[in-house]
Amino acid sequence: MNCRDYVDFLMAYVNDELPPDQAVAFRQHISDCPPCIHYLETYRETLELEKQAYAEQETLFEEAPEKLVKAILAARGEDKI
Amino acid sequence: MEQAMTQSTDNDQPTTASLLARLRAGEDAAFEIMVRAQASRLLRVARRFFASEDDALDVVQEAFLAAFRKLDGFQEGARLSTWLHRITVNAALMKLRSRRRRPEEPIDELLPQFDDRGLSTHLPREWTGHAHELLEREEDRKFVRASIQKLPESYRLVLLLRDIDEWDTRETARLLGLTTGAVKVRLHRARLALRTLLAARFEVEAS
Ligand SMILES: [Zn+2]
Predict the structure, then answer these.
(1) Is A36 in contact with B120 (Cβ distance < 8 A)?
(2) For a surface tag, which of A25, B10, B87, B99 has the fewest beta carbons within 10 Å of its beta carbon?
(3) Domains along chain A with CATH numbers
(4) Residue A47 and residue B119: Cβ atoms within 8 Å?
């Protein structure tokens, strides 16, 4: 397995979806090519960062903007729904 | 009105038959309850798809109007919040589709590069700190969101729907009109491209 194949398999590896023989080859690549461990680590960190970036800071209920509420209710009136 | 205020905090309650009956009967107060209970959460969903706040507000309004029109199709016992979430995502995708004009930038430059033998031409380095430390700073969270915004749209949408909104592959394929195979390929490339963009900030200096 070369670096390109290894990178192609990252998602399947992280999802535990690689067939056993390919998972062995995947891990073997890391021992043959130590820098590639950083692709795996930073791929995982990317996933974590994405989720954190959009995670709610507070679970408290937040009021809807009053203007938006009024606009929606008014539009319903106009459309006679 | 008083009832609207107390019920507005129950934004994830299974829809009661009585609220649904009141909505179907066209009772104004029932619509106000529904809008107050759900609008802020749907606005947060819509904001992920648009850089502009006005676009996000428009989409939430369109989503509610679409929902009002098809209340008859709502399955009793389902969650109103889940149903509205899907309608909002659809409204956002429709708005994006309607304005897609120029062909998008290719993603290739953001993907890892290899030589003829398939070996990395740029060796990846580790990142400073870990995700949880990085994200104590709102500045970093903003950087990550801005980086996602930079992805070509067809990749960004797959990443938002799969990783942030957490629809499964099949549902994402349906929402975007893609095959499940295409969703998997785009998700993988989107994550790799995002990794490249994030590396610019988080990668440790070469020693
Ligand atoms: Zn390698």
Answers:
(1) yes
(2) B99
(3) 3-75 (1.10.10)
(4) no
Please list, in sequence order, all residues whose beta carbon lies within 8 angstroms of the beta carbon of residue A50, skipping any fewer than 6 positions away: B144, B148, B159, B163, B164, B194
Per-residue burial over B59-69, b if 16 or more Cβ lie within 10 Å, else e, is: bbbbbbbbbbe
Do B159 and A50 lie within an 8 Å CB cutoff? yes
Q: CATH top-level class for B108-206?
A: mainly alpha
Whether chain A has a CB inside 8 Å of the CB on B185: the answer is no
What is the pTM assigned to this prediction? Answer: 0.87
ipTM of the complex as predicted: 0.90
Q: Given a cut of 80, is residue A60 above it in pLDDT? A: no
**Chain A residues bordering chain B (beta-carbon distance below 8 Å):** 2-5, 7-8, 10-11, 33, 35-36, 38-39, 41-43, 45-54, 56, 61-65, 68-69, 71-73, 75-76, 79, 81
